[in-house]
Amino acid sequence: MAPGKYMVKDAKTGDQAFLTSTKTDILGARKICGDGGQSATPCTAAQLEAASRKGFPATVTLHKGVATKVAEDHPAGGGTDQEQPKKVYWEGVSHYLAPGKYSVTDDGTKKERAFLTSSKTVINGNGWICGTREKTKRCTTAQLDAATKRGERLVVKIADDGTAVTIDEQHN
Fold this sequence. Notes:
Elements: E1 5-8, E2 16-19, E3 25-28, E4 41-42, H1 45-52, E5 58-63, E6 66-72, E7 89-98, E8 101-106, E9 112-116, E10 122-125, E11 137-138, H2 141-149, E12 153-158, E13 164-169
Parallel strand pairs: 3-6, 10-13
Antiparallel strand pairs: 1-2, 3-4, 5-6, 7-8, 7-12, 8-9, 10-11, 12-13
């Protein structure tokens, strides 16, 4: 996607956008780096970025939309993070990650899903993000940033590429 921004794609669980940080543990088995032996090889962010252009099977461990570990699967290994359920609408407490980058923790499953916004994302407010409880208003990303920093409850429709299509407040 861009330096430090990646997408895990899986036919069973759907797509998940995520970020990396300087603390992300990157382990290779041949395609990122390494010789394909039994033990994982520590890799650099530059090696991960180069390998991601071609794609490779990996297991990604996330915390609030940021990868704590990216481990390339050995050739006989499986796919991506099997814990992430496929779901178009995510409802729950929001988290601010960086400008245009957020996550939402589902109330029922306690799973967290990171998402991005774009110029096409529709952000609707009814008093928490912007606007009033009586009248829905279109909100700005700056207003969304402030609301997610407070952990407001959101309903987010996420497209296959990890970008939010619509964001609405979740009033009880």
